[in-house]
Amino acid sequence: MAEEVTQYFSNSSSNNDDKSLELVISQLPKASSWLKGGVTLYQNCWFPSINIPSIITFQNQFKAKDDDIIMASSPKSGATWLKSLLFSILNRNQHYNQHPLLTTSPHHLVPSFELTIYSDHKLHDLSTMSSPRLLWTHIPYASLSDSIEHCSESRIVYVSRNPLDVIVSMWYFANGVPEQEWTIEDCVDEFCRGQNIFGPYWDHVLGYWKASLEKPEKVLFLKYEEMKEDTFGQAKRIAEFIGLPFSQEEESDGVIEQILEMCSFSKLKDLDVNKHGQVWPTFDNKLFFRKGQVGDWKNHLTPSLVERVSKVIKEKLSGSGLSFKMSELDFLA
Ligand code: PAP
Predict the structure, then answer these.
(1) Hey, which residues are catalytic here?
(2) Helices (H), the chain
(3) Which of 19, 210, 252, 310 is 20 to 30 A from 6 in CA distance terms?
(4) pLDDT digits over 145-169, tens only?
(5) Is the torsion defined by CA of 15, 29, 136, 155 positive or negative?
(6) What is the pLDDT of residues 65-101, one digit of tens each?
(7) Are 120 and 61 in contact (CB under 8 A)?
(8) Ligand 1 centre and the CA of 225: distance in Å?
(9) Dist CA 71 CA 84 (whole Å)
(10) How far apart are CA 16 and CA 20, in angstroms?
């Protein structure tokens, strides 16, 4: 069925017949979710149902360019932070009157394929965007456009986060949406069944993890916990990966520290632009800045919930070489 959907789009013009599209998509497997419209299984991923047309449009239309920088993440893994950092690193030599992050949400500075650019599932000409283009997605590696895979010079920066903090972050986020009530048990259950949005989580992280091992020059795999522990070192790593390393002069002038300060949790959370308004367009900006810590799961998950998640994650990540630091002290073996 997933092939039929892709085929449908490949054969159709930009004036897709929405009714036939809806019919084809309606036959894909569905599950309920805290997210309005639930999730739909397409190419082995539980995508938000409302985003399926835009994801397929992206897959069929997007043409990568050599200097593109594509940012990817599983939900609640640190995308807001990484968007701010990448944007600031990339534009550090622009002469702004004031830094754009002071007045614009990071989500508006770095557009999403599925949530903004292709959200109307129409043809879009992105060739006019200034280069290098900084773009973002939650789409798993296996479902990225072939064009990104085959465009040898374009770069992918992926941020991952330990599953327990992801669950707690998602739980808060979901309950921040009006008329939403979702228990932490529901959240764990959905996560362990692999039916969380853009899940299964383990397929998402492993897809990018394996790609980063196979093509280290193309895919950079970051961990939220390592970014918290050594933000300075990780910012340098990101800058080098995108081909814009900090010079000695920049280092001694404190350019890195200025960027880290601008993108810090406390700075961004306190800005008016991030306290008010919405993105995409139904989520309050403030929901993207909650606590920004490693190990908050200890305050919310019972030992039996932790055990359930750990068991699944150990089994799924076994043999991959991928592990996560869960708090200041612990590692998930
Ligand atoms: P998304 O998947 O909806 O885009 P994403 O930005 O990936 O969300 O993750 C949100 C988490 O990043 C929140 O974590 P928490 O719920 O555990 O607090 C959010 O607080 C955190 N976050 C946002 N900005 C920053 C930042 N500048 N530094 C550190 N963490 C941040």
Answers:
(1) 138
(2) 2-11, 18-26, 52-61, 79-90, 106-109, 146-150, 163-175, 184-192, 201-214, 224-229, 231-241, 248-252, 255-262, 265-270, 272-275, 303-317
(3) 210
(4) 888 988 778 999 999 999 999 999 9
(5) negative
(6) 999 999 999 999 999 999 999 999 999 999 888 999 9
(7) no
(8) 12
(9) 11
(10) 8
Enter the tokens of residue 117.
């650019």
**39-42 vs 30-31, strand pairing mode:** antiparallel
pLDDT in tens, 181-212: 889 999 999 999 999 999 999 999 999 999 99
- Range 184-189, long-range pairs (CB < 8 A, 24+ positions): 184/300, 184/301, 184/305, 185/305, 186/34, 187/34, 188/301, 188/305, 188/308, 188/309
Distance between Cα 80 and ligand 1 center (Å): 6
Of the options 3.30.565.10, 3.90.870.10, 3.40.190.10, 3.40.50.300, the CATH number for the domain spanning 63-330: 3.40.50.300
**Whole-number Cα distances in Å, 134 to 66, 76, 130, 320:** 12, 19, 9, 29
* SS3 assignment, position 235: helix
CA atoms within 13 A on the CB side of 277: 12
Cα of 115 vs centre of ligand 1, distance in Å, is: 17
Structure tokens at 226: 């390592």
Ligand 1, atom 8, residue with closest C-alpha: 76
Query: Which residues are paired to 42 by β-bridges?
Result: 45
